[in-house]
Amino acid sequence: MKTIYLVFPEGSSGNPRIEDAIRNHLGAKGITATLISGSVGDIPIDVDLVVTLSPQDTQGYTGPIVDGASLRTGVGNQPVLYEITKKITGA
Predict the structure, then answer these.
(1) Which of the two residues, 30 and 15, has the higher pLDDT score?
(2) CATH code at position 29
(3) Which among 54, 38, 41 has a CA at the least distance from the CA of 5?
(4) pLDDT at 55 over 80
(5) Which domain holds residue 53?
(6) At 82, is the secondary structure helix, strand, or coil?
């Protein structure tokens, strides 16, 4: 099982619609993942992928990262979901 950390703006605890979109997309590909939501300062060391959903600076993070800003609006989210799948599978 993979772990994905979703970086939301400070003060936001997450968004079920975004989490469901990622979970459903990965599930359709046969991939199970644990989704954790939080802020940029709380990124765990052992996550497989970070998806940033805010303009916060993730410059200090050196692991795999995807800009998921379009997931917040729902417009144009397919390329982001594809990129998440690509990075999480290493394909």
Answers:
(1) 30
(2) 3.40.50.2300
(3) 38
(4) no
(5) 2-89
(6) helix
For the record, the structure tokens of 2 come out as 């993979």
Q: Which two tokens stand for residue 69?
A: 């800003």
Q: What is the pLDDT of residue 76?
A: 72
Alpha-carbon torsion (17, 20, 26, 31), positive or negative: positive
What's the total number of domains in the chain?
Answer: 1
Helix axis angle, 16-28 to 77-89, nearest 10°: 60
**DSSP letter (8 states) at residue 42:** G
User: In the structure encoding, which two tokens stand for residue 58, read together?
Assistant: 């993730």
- Residue 35 — very low, low, confident or very high, per pLDDT cuts 50/70/90? very high
Of residues 35 and 57, which shows the higher confidence score? Answer: 35
> Which stretches does DSSP call E strand in 12-74?
33-38, 49-52, 65-67
Q: Are 82 and 66 in contact (CB under 8 A)?
A: no
